[in-house]
């Protein structure tokens, strides 16, 4: 299972640019926060006359919004840049103008100077806190290489650059939306590059988040997913000047008319506060699906990872959450083959999975990230051993996920329909537990939350039928 995305920006769905408009193509790698950032890049460039297109060929401006989490991430970017260089040369040769090429996101933050040296075709390198500077940087592409790197700006500046008009017209037309509320990380897990590429933890003011959420609700968005590298560490300034916790933010969001569902990701076990657990018991709008990574089930490996919590604290935390919200479904993240991991350590991970039981999970073989402490640790696990462990872990996780989905058969769940299905009349929506639900005869209900009787559940989705006829 993977959370990696490699798609054009969601705004590309707007279709071809109007005649005379400059064409913008954004390719997004990685997490939902990068999807959100890509939408914002399109927003800040729209006043300059850029309209999104769904292919790089013929584009006037191409942005690769990168992710540094996965192995060989930079190499994928360099391969794509080689193709773009050839596209630009062909575009110039046929007299169709040029193509500005930019690399944004975490690879840009971590390897900005190296990118410029290795691939001269790149015009701009923009770190994840600097996309609001794109209009200015576009006017500086002829300057020296060092002046073209805009990676050292405070995170609040990029949100300050979002005007009310941009918020009202931000890309995307569906009933769900991502909303970044927090950035950066202060945890310094030894395997992770986020503290080095995204910087220290910073939270948006509550008023700004609520204003954007209201604008989304006015456009028909029924569900928002709050995003942050450590989203439950949120402590944005409240209207009274005092810090807002994520729980207080959830209560405020739940009061917005039309906004019926609230989710958040990704969380850290050390930031799962009492008031947030209580909010899950109090708020129907706060969905009963929590992504709470643990990474490993061995105390020794957790110490090596610098997770700052042990296995029992995590298990006890899950029990407290389920006591507050008995129907809570848990998702997690796991890394196998971490440096020094023994067979006994891995068995501890399997034991933790059996105790918690997961409705979904992302699991990976450890891959060294340059510059992180774990990359230089002794005891690097052989690839064949790590892959065998991953196979065993995923078999258990898939078994649990399939069992959880199958257990929904016979239940009636409220489903938010998001898009048309593959077959005539079919619609696809999401259950409260984030499961994909396929229902025939429901394509007229897009954007609505409707009770659905679940007929069956498979590993990755549910099938259901409308409880009663619903008209527009």
From TrEMBL:
One of its GO terms (molecular function) is tRNA-2-methylthio-N(6)-dimethylallyladenosine(37) synthase activity. It is an enzyme of class 2 (transferase). Binds 2 [4Fe-4S] clusters. One cluster is coordinated with 3 cysteines and an exchangeable S-adenosyl-L-methionine. [4Fe-4S] cluster 1 binds at residues 31, 67, 106. Residues 406-468 form the TRAM domain. Residues 22-143 form the MTTase N-terminal domain. It catalyses: N(6)-dimethylallyladenosine(37) in tRNA + (sulfur carrier)-SH + AH2 + 2 S-adenosyl-L-methionine = 2-methylsulfanyl-N(6)-dimethylallyladenosine(37) in tRNA + (sulfur carrier)-H + 5'-deoxyadenosine + L-methionine + A + S-adenosyl-L-homocysteine + 2 H(+). Its cofactor is [4Fe-4S] cluster. Its EC number is 2.8.4.3. It is found in: Cytoplasm. CDD domains: Radical_SAM. Keywords: 4Fe-4S, Cytoplasm, Iron, Iron-sulfur, Metal-binding, S-adenosyl-L-methionine, Transferase, tRNA processing. Its main location: cytoplasm. Residues 171-403 form the Radical SAM core domain. It comes from the Bacteria. [4Fe-4S] cluster 2 binds at residues 185, 189, 192. InterPro entries: Elp3/MiaA/NifB-like_rSAM (IPR006638), Methylthiotransferase (IPR005839), Methylthiotransferase_CS (IPR020612), Methylthiotransferase_N (IPR013848), Methylthiotransferase_N_sf (IPR038135), MiaB_methiolase (IPR006463), rSAM (IPR007197), rSAM_horseshoe (IPR023404). HAMAP family: tRNA_metthiotr_MiaB. Catalyzes the methylthiolation of N6-(dimethylallyl)adenosine (i(6)A), leading to the formation of 2-methylthio-N6-(dimethylallyl)adenosine (ms(2)i(6)A) at position 37 in tRNAs that read codons beginning with uridine. PANTHER family: CDK5 REGULATORY SUBUNIT-ASSOCIATED PROTEIN 1, MITOCHONDRIAL TRNA METHYLTHIOTRANSFERASE CDK5RAP1. Belongs to the methylthiotransferase family. MiaB subfamily. Monomer. This is tRNA-2-methylthio-N(6)-dimethylallyladenosine synthase. It comes from Brevundimonas faecalis. The gene is miaB.
């Amino acid at each position: 299972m993977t959370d990696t995305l490699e798609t054009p920006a969601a705004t590309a769905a707007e279709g071809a640019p109007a005649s005379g408009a400059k064409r913008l193509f954004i390719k997004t790698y990685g997490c939902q926060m990068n999807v959100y950032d890509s939408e914002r890049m399109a927003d800040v460039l729209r006043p300059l006359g850029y309209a999104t297109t769904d292919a790089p060929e013929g584009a006037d401006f191409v942005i690769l919004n990168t992710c540094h989490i996965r192995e060989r991430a930079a190499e994928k970017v360099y391969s794509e840049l080689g193709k773009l260089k050839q596209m630009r040369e062909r575009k110039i040769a046929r007299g169709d103008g040029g193509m500005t090429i930019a690399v944004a996101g975490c690879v840009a933050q971590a390897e900005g100077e190296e990118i410029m040296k290795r691939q001269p075709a790149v015009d701009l390198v923009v770190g994840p806190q600097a996309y609001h500077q794109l209009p200015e940087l576009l006017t500086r592409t002829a300057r020296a290489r060092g002046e073209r790197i805009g990676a050292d700006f405070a995170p609040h500046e990029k949100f300050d650059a979002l005007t009310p008009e941009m918020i009202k017209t931000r890309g995307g037309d569906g009933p769900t939306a991502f909303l970044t509320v927090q950035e950066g990380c202060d945890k310094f897990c030894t395997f992770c590059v986020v503290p080095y590429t995204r910087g220290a933890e910073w939270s948006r003011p509550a008023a700004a988040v609520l204003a954007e959420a209201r604008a989304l609700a006015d456009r028909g968005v029924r569900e928002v997913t709050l995003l942050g590298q450590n989203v439950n560490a949120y402590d944005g300034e409240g209207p009274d000047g005092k810090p807002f916790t994520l729980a207080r933010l959830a209560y405020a969001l739940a009061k917005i008319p039309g906004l019926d569902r609230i989710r958040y990701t990704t969380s850290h076990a050390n930031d799962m506060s009492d008031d947030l657990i209580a909010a899950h018991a109090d708020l129907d709008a706060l969905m009963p699906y929590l992504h709470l990574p643990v990474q490993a089930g061995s105390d020794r490996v957790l110490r090596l990872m610098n997770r700052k919590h042990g296995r029992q604290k995590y298990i006890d935390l899950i029990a407290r959450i389920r006591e507050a919200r008995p129907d809570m479904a848990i998702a997690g993240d796991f890394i196998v083959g971490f440096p020094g991991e023994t067979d006994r350590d891995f068995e501890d991970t399997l034991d933790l999975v059996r105790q918690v039981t997961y409705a979904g999970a992302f699991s990976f073989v450890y891959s060294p990230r340059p510059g992180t402490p774990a990359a230089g640790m002794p005891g690097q696990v052989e690839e064949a051993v790590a892959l065998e462990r991953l196979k065993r872990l995923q078999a258990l996780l898939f078994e649990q996920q399939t069992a959880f989905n199958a257990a929904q058969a016979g239940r009636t769940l409220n489903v938010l329909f998001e898009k048309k299905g593959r077959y005539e009349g079919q619609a696809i929506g999401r259950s409260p537990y984030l499961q994909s639900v396929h229902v025939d005869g429901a394509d007229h209900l897009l954007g609505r939350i409707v009770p659905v009787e679940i007929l069956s559940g498979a590993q990755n989705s549910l099938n259901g039928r409308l409880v009663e006829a619903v008209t527009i």
